[in-house]
Amino acid sequence: MNLNQAIELAKSNRYQEALPYFKEAYEHELESFNEWAWYFYSKTLAKMGRMDDAIKVNRFLFDKKPDFDANKNLYSWNLYKHKIKEAEDEEKLFSTANFIINNTRQERYSAYERTVLEVLKHLKNKPNTNYNQMLYWTEKLDPRLLSQDTFSFTDDNGRKRELASSLESWYQYRIKALFETKRYEECVQLTQEALSTIKTFHYNNDIWFRIKEAVSIAQLGNVDNALHKLKTIVLEKQHWTVYQELFHLYKQKEDFKKALEMGAFALLERSGEFKHKIKLLLHMGDVLEKLENPKQALLHYCFVSELRSENNWPINKRIENRISMLLGGKSAPKDIKPELIKIWKQIKLESLPKGTGRVKKILPKGNAGFIVSEEEEDLFFHLKNVKQKNIKVNSKVRFHIINSYDQKKQKKSKEAVEIYIIQ
After folding, report:
1. What domain range is 292 assigned to?
2. Are 392 and 359 spatial neighbours (Cβ–Cβ below 8 Å)?
3. How many domains does the chain have?
4. Do residues 216 and 249 touch, judged by C-beta distance below 8 A?
5. Do the beta carbons of residue 33 and residue 57 sit within 8 Å?
6. Can you spell out the DSSP letters for 38-100?
7. Which of 334, 351, 368 is at the close of a domain?
8. What tens digit of pLDDT does each residue of 348-403 get?
9. Last residue of some domain: 351, 381, 399?
10. Tens digits of per-residue pLDDT, 342-355?
């Protein structure tokens, strides 16, 4: 019989050979089709790229045998690959996703888990994420059933890449949603759980989780504890967002000088474009006004106005009115960005201790090395922080010192920046 041959070939993953037999059986042996025959027919159609036809067979069998789990699981995977992964219409995405989670279970044989994670990815990538909706979808997964296995692959440039596990991704979505919906106690609890559960983090998730934890702690009233945690993080990761959070906490404590310092560090960090730092620029202007420095505050507001114009964003009347008031009928300043960078550098450097010493060692790749200070302290440095090009071993130098973190030795260290050769 054609049908028996088709099923046996499909069971052996010989789908190309099986398909003609299924076609013959469909025309001449239709009355012999049972649920398993329909199941393997759908699987064969899907493997041969005829996904629409495969889904029609799944639907027919689902209507006929709604409790047949093998078909429901296959149906979910076919819908996931064809309707979820390739969805262009959000309404269809959600309707298909809801069908899958209402008719399958969170298990390895169904597309339940992958469907929920794909919906969460879609929500995260929307311009205006609905975090309550994200919470709803994270609740559809039981984290105890999620895997910590990662997936490795080689990208088009020949670089080896590794994707986060399902469990790490779930923590990422859930923590973000809890934080954005101001459920701070739950956010702290879940970040601590994630940090103790995940063995290896990806995309610096351990850093971002700790930032969310610290800010949540501040929102719950313990600002000093939050400051301590953020200052620990910034030793390991000099990302502008960490400095920004420190800025906000110092501003909250009305330590405006320290807030200004943290703001300068954030704005000078190469991580993040200026258009993403607009709110920080506005807050910097506010702090400068509190410190009775209206000229520098004006520069920050004017820079915000420039950035909004460059990005074709609508005019903000409140900002424009503030600029107009501070100008007092005078002409708007020119060369704003270079002037601001000078101001930020001055603020940053004024907060750092100075030192002199000599270059002890330049590492083999030539992009970093060590300086020994006059106090016989070894300081790491990056070549990008040297202001001249002719640095070499034994060059005498002056520099500023920042606190850093030695990732290799997993301990606090110190680093030389703003390095000038003096001999």
Report:
1. 238-351
2. yes
3. 2
4. no
5. no
6. HHHHHHHHHHTT-HHHHHHHHHHHHHH-TT-HHHHHHHHHHHIIIIITT---HHHHHHHHHHH
7. 351
8. 999 999 999 999 999 988 889 999 999 999 999 999 899 888 899 999 999 999 88
9. 351
10. 999 999 999 999 99
